[in-house]
Amino acid sequence: MSYNTGLIISLAFVIVFFVFAVDLISLQSIYTDLDSKAIAIGYLISQSGSLDQEFIADLEEKYNVTFTCEDNCTPRFKDVVKYKLGVEYTPLIIAKEQMIIEVHRSTIIGYYM
Questions:
Q1: pLDDT at residue 84 above 90?
Q2: 113 falls within a domain
Q3: Domain-embedded: residue 10
Q4: Which of 76, 94, 102, 113 has a beta carbon 3.0–4.6 Å from 86's, enabling a disulfide?
């Protein structure tokens, strides 16, 4: 009888740790994906040379991210543009509400021409 009770209790702990590990792996995967999108978006911003609302809406639709310009949103040639990309994530066990995963990046206008 005690064997069955111990097995049931240990399975409960194993399941909780498994779900926690799935959350951590999902967070890492989302962050890696966001990082690669940030590199591609930085290249496009550098080539485009402007950050108008149409360009930002295009980026958000194409890459499925939330784009926020942090500094120098009307850049000129050789200016540094700082931006942030975010994605919402609903964790399984880490938090009860949605989390926003963000990366902060910068690019130089005209660097890739």
A1: yes
A2: no
A3: yes
A4: 102
Residues 6+ apart with CB under 8 A from 7: none
Number of domains in the chain: 1
Angle at 36 between CA 31 and CA 41, to 5 degrees: 120
Range of the domain at 76: 2-108
Closest among 16, 78, 7 to 49, alpha carbons compared: 78
The secondary structure of residue 92, as a DSSP letter, is: S
Alpha-carbon distance of 88 to 81, in angstroms, equals 23
Measured between alpha carbons, how far is 63 from 41 in angstroms, rounded to an integer?
Answer: 9
Strand partners, 81: 107
- 85, 34 Cβ separation under 8 angstroms: yes
